[in-house]
Amino acid sequence: MSKPFYLTTPIYYVNDRPHIGHTYTTVLADVIARFHRMLGEDVRFLTGTDEHGQKVEKAAAARGIAPKALADEVVANYTDLWQRMGMTHDRFIRTTDADHRATVQSWFEKLLATGDIYKATYKGLYSVSDEAYVTETQAKELQAQGLAHQLIELEEETYFFRLSAYQDRLLAFYKEFREQERREWVQPEFRFNEVLRFVEGGLQDLSISRTSITWGIPVPGDTKHVVYVWFDALLNYLTGAETAWPPDLQLVGKDILRFHAVYWPAFLMAMGLELPKTILAHGWWLMGEDKMSKSKGNVVRPDTLLRFGNDALRFFFLRDMQVGHDRGFSFEGFMDRLNADLANGLGNLASRTLSMIQRYRDGRIPALPAHRDGVTRTHEGLGRAAFDQYLENARRNYFNYALGPLWDYLRGLDGYIVEKQPWVLAKDPAKAEELDAVLHLLWQALRMTAVLVAPVMPGMAQELWTQLGMTGLVADQRVDQITWDVSMPERIGPIQPLFQRIDKEKEMSELETSAAAPAEAKPALDVPELRETIDYDTFAKTDLRVGKVLEAERVPKSDKLIKMRVDLGFELRTIVGGIGKAYAPEDLVGRRVVVVANLAPRKLMGIESHGMLLAASDNAGLPYLVAVPEEAHPGFLVK
Ligand code: ME8
Q: Residue 256 pairs with which residues in a beta bridge?
């Protein structure tokens, strides 16, 4: 038996909850996993979390909790989200899992024995955010970008991996792959070129242990050292492989391509293991010009978008992102895409087709008539071409190029309906065969579309499948064996709209959370008048404090009020704030706020609120909480 198709995502750091960047990678992996299952393959799909290292140690220290406690908390966020989104991974691996620790320690020992790992002293600049030493050139670049504070000077005794010894073998491998297999080992092509240039620029040995931190897997026999987080992290793909080695496809963001396309294959060469077949590096979801990141405070959380449905989010991700390139995110673009392609587009075509079959044929699906005219045959041909193109591009993981032509084809069918005017044909008994041909073609096209899009929109595809009158699971179909002449059910199923049109204006006004649509929603400010002048003493009577939100929940029956437990350093308070239209409770937990601490308590919907949060407010009255840097502790006075 052939080995399973082995597919991996990066393992995510547990210093932050998932945002749509992480969600995108995992969705893409899940779509590919489902697609390969529908090709009849056995699939192993691995995802998980990267829990060791300085980044996580620091994030935990900032919260005043143990790294493992932070990891457990964030992992619960990930596993809960993946479960709600119906992800089909076979294992969620954590680098704190015992079997992973064993993998890392045993390979460390073996490579030490072969001389691929050796011990020496290292001095250099280290980037905390990248968890990596930087070269002088890289340090200069970071300084030029005003990011010098991320660099620290480290001198330590360290274990090195003999990366320099693999430069030629790596280059030979890349070249041979290109020439012999005529494929991209790194997808897309231009990213492969970046990797080649990097390796041609020369490789230095890589420090793979740390003495500056304790949160990591101890180096066997030398426990002053912990294993470098990237050596630890990359080996997760070995721990989680079971019988599926080597990986057929490894998905990564472009930010971590170097680790996967240079260090990782070098480690594997040293281990004498087979290399992955393909590394796919996708681009970033941007907010404006910037990468979405917690430190920039511009992240969009998946739950904000999941309100429109899991399938809708998956479709948007796959359809809008050209794999390999960056893409700016906007709520407006998100809603436009769903309205155009799912409410109109597929949704409209399905409801028109099904209701015509209902109305003109009493729900019975017409068989393929012997005589079809040129127009109908043309659309049959266009359909075959779009379906073939879909399969070809999906096999290469380029779903945007699969979905685009398919949706062009569906749009063409709208034109076909207009041209054929079934409502006119229905009035003329002599045109019955022509009407049958139209209805049959539309039904067939929708049935095949349901199969093709099932990996992308599992729920909606199944819904469509059932409405078309098909039985069983669409996911059990072979996506590469869809044919025109299937044995058809007699009747269609009950009809329901596939996707509700989104009321964009209403949503835009409701969605303006801190993360939402920064550039789009700039209300023309109608600046309130300046209030009367006061002296300092009057101002100083207001006791403003830094607080930290520990818990937050909506007040039942109110869309505005959120009840919070806030740590003021010297005491815990219950504060009810009217910020529920702009903030979700889960976005508030952990957040620092400014509290008017000496405001007399008052009751809001029966709950005593002791204090008030400072927030700016726009014309529509939407609040924008005043931000406080993470370094400011609860209890600090604001003046
Ligand atoms: O790098 N757009 O973890 P991480 C698209 N632990 N994708 C994005 C994104 C964005 N704006 N932001 C993040 C790590 N991602 C390491 C990986 S693997 C052995 C160790 C996605 O939590 C993208 O896939 O920083 C990126 O590679 C990954 O999240 C980084 O997640």
A: none
> What is the largest distance, in Å, between two alpha-carbon atoms of the chain?
93
What spacing in Å lies between the alpha carbon of 410 and ligand 1's midpoint?
34
Q: In angstroms, what is the span from residue 529 Cα to ligand 1's centroid?
A: 46
Whether residue 501 lies inside any domain: the answer is: no
Q: Which of 468, 444, 447 is nearest to 369 (CA)?
A: 444
Residues 143 and 22 in one domain: yes
| Ligand 1 proximity of 329 Cβ (cutoff 6 Å) | no
Among left, alpha and beta (phi > 0; psi -120 to 50; other), residue 86 is left
Distance 10 CA to ligand 1 centre (A): 7
* Terminal-residue alpha carbon distance, the chain: 71
Confirm or reject: Cβ of 24 under 6 Å from ligand 1.
Answer: yes
In a domain, 301, yes or no: no
**Smallest CA separation from ligand 1 atom 23, residue:** 253
DSSP 27-40: HHHHHHHHHHHTTT
- Please give the model's pTM, rounded to 2 decimal places: 0.79
Q: Who contacts 276 (Cβ-Cβ below 8 Å, separation ≥6)? A: 237, 246, 247, 248, 249, 250, 264, 265
Name the token pair of 211.
């003495």
Q: What angle, 0 to 180 degrees and rounded to 10, lies between the N-to-C axes of helices 374-395 and 432-453?
A: 0
The verdict on the CB of residue 252 being under 6 Å from ligand 1 is yes
Residues 556-608 pLDDT 10s:
888 889 999 999 988 999 999 999 888 888 889 889 999 999 999 998 888 99
Cα 415 to averaged position of ligand 1 atoms, centre (Å): 42
25 and 144 inside one domain: yes
| 593 in any annotated domain | yes
Among protein residues, the one with the nearest Cα to ligand 1's atom 13 is: 21
Residues 359 and 225 in one domain: no
CATH of the domain at 55: 3.40.50.620
Residues 6+ apart with CB under 8 A from 492: 354, 357, 358, 363, 365, 443, 467, 468, 469
Nearest CA to ligand 1 atom 27: 253
- Tell me, yes or no, whether 550 and 454 share the same domain: no
Say if residue 548 is in the same domain as residue 444.
no
Residue-wise pLDDT for 235-286, tens only, equals 999 999 999 999 999 999 999 999 999 999 999 999 999 999 999 999 999 9
**Domain CATH code at residue 605:** 2.40.50.140
Residue that finishes a domain, picked among 458, 476, 494: 476
Q: Are residues 449 and 551 in the same domain?
A: no
Domain co-membership, 92 together with 168: yes
CB 199 less than 6 A from any atom of ligand 1: no
- The domain of 441 spans 313-319+328-476
- Tens-place pLDDT, residues 386-429: 999 999 999 999 999 999 999 999 999 999 999 999 999 999 99
Q: Residue 383 belongs to a domain with what CATH number?
A: 1.10.730.10
Return the ligand 1 atom nearest residue 283 CA.
5
Number of domains, the chain: 3
Quick one: 231 and 365 in the same domain?
no
Using the mean position of ligand 1's atoms as its centre, give its distance from the Cα of residue 21 in Å: 7
Q: Quick one: tokens of 564? A: 């919070």
- Residue 491 resides in a domain: no
Cis peptide before 634 (omega within 30 of 0): no
The protein residue whose alpha carbon is closest to atom 8 in ligand 1 is 21
> What is the DSSP track for 461-483?
HHHHHHHTT--S-GGGS-GGG--
